[in-house]
Write a structure and sequence with these properties.
By secondary structure, the chain is of the alpha/beta class. Helix content is about 40%, strand content about 15%. The protein has a six-stranded parallel sheet, sandwiched between helices. Strands 9-8-7-10-11 form a five-stranded parallel sheet. The longest helix has 17 residues. The chain starts with a helix and ends with a helix.
Length: about 400
């Protein structure tokens, strides 16, 4: 059915004239989007080169799920999206899109450096892709091209190495001030940011993963003890779940109610129109398992702690692009609560802890280590828009 629908759209596109000044952006939320800085640039009142249409895909879907718009309005907005895609000179996304005609240009800014297998390399086959139709695919380094191409299989000339625009926020935003605004609380503590990866747990009837019971997935976890540890060491713990898992976990984590533990939700970011990466540099330590955020966080040269509690299961079911895991994850590995609390203090008290290892991985994955990635992407956009005009 989907193939027939796309075929119909391609037929209709033949009768629609391209607007050579029009750029359509397909936006999917504020949880660390490479589109956020580009949108800010293109919609700045001083920047009037092009017509820009922003399609907020995530908002359209969430409004329909929440009953804020009916089915008629939902499909009307979807058709509106396809209409703009058909008539645009340039389509910019972070997750790819259908090619509806051959005479427009598609730029994919993507959404992270992968350590876990995906697409063609994903053992579970849960994120199958067809042929990638993008003319340009944003990259952070030559090594990224090699790793990514195992998953998506495109030509070398399609990669454009410029660095991720969202990483500019790591250098030029006041993360603490932004976080204070987001959580409506004055921060006079050191901040720990915890961002676990997406596991699709809600589709597993009998998952062994203990994150259903506690957010680290430890076999045993005493929240009262953890809360006291945070209080005694003047620490604020920020939990940001993957957007696809939030609804599943929010109610389960409601029992963890504390001034020392704050759950930042995608809805909070949307209300404040604030990209997640505008608060990332507020963190003194990042904790994750397999999330790509840690590759970006390396640019700050701050400690990272890893909690690969289900490593063997994850490796078996999905697989990893980069092994051995210990080499590619430059930080201590913690599988239980006491160890985690100990390593948090080690990281805070020793600035050299795992620094050499972080530098090694940073230099492999980031050709550019500055705040100019947005400008490099804008140079490409200008080049595309000026061609054939």
């Amino acid at each position: 059915m989907k193939k027939l629908f796309i075929a119909c759209l391609k037929f209709v596109a033949k009768f629609i004239k391209i607007d050579k000044k029009l750029i359509t952006i397909i936006f999917r939320g504020f949880s660390g989007s490479n589109l956020s800085p580009i949108i800010e640039k293109l919609t700045n009142s001083a920047y009037k080169k092009y017509k820009v249409k922003i399609i907020d895909d995530e908002k359209i879907c969430s409004e329909f799920r929440e009953g804020k718009i009916n089915k008629y309005d939902f499909y009307r907005k979807l058709l509106d999206k396809y209409k703009y895609v058909m008539k645009s000179k340039l389509i910019i996304t972070t997750h790819g899109f259908y090619r509806l005609r051959n005479d427009n240009v598609m730029l994919n800014l993507w959404h992270g450096i992968p350590i876990k297998s995906m697409a063609l390399m994903n053992k579970s086959k849960k994120d199958k892709i067809g042929v990638m139709k993008d003319d340009y695919f944003l990259s952070t380094s030559e090594f990224f091209n090699t790793v990514m191409n195992a998953c998506i299989g495109i030509r070398a000339e399609q990669y454009y190495i410029a660095g991720y625009p969202r990483n500019d926020y790591l250098f030029n935003e006041d993360g603490v001030r932004n976080l204070e605004q987001l959580i409506n609380m004055k921060i006079d503590k050191r901040v720990i940011l915890y961002m676990p990866t997406y596991r699709d747990l809600h589709s597993k009837k009998d998952s062994k993963n203990k994150r259903i019971d506690n957010f680290f997935g430890f076999e045993e976890f005493n929240f009262g003890e953890f809360d006291c540890f945070l209080k005694e060491n003047n620490l604020l713990f920020i939990l940001k779940l993957h957007p696809n898992e939030e609804q599943f976990f929010i109610d389960k984590y409601s029992k963890y109610n504390s001034q020392n533990v704050i759950l930042v939700k995608s809805k909070d970011l949307e209300i404040h129109r604030m990209d997640l990466y505008k608060i990332v540099n507020a963190a003194d330590i990042l904790i994750t398992d397999y999330s790509s955020v840690y590759f970006d966080y390396l640019l700050l040269d701050r400690p990272i702690i890893f909690t690969p509690v289900d490593f063997e299961e994850y490796k078996e079911e999905r697989g990893f692009l980069l092994e051995p895991y210990d080499f590619w994850t430059p930080g201590p590995k913690c599988l239980e609560q006491e160890q985690l609390q100990r390593e948090i203090l080690n990281c805070l008290n020793n600035s050299e802890y795992f620094r050499k290892e972080r530098q090694t991985i940073k230099n492999i994955f980031h050709k550019y280590q500055d705040s100019n990635s947005t400008e490099r992407v804008m140079d490409l956009i200008d080049k595309i828009m000026e061609e054939s005009n």
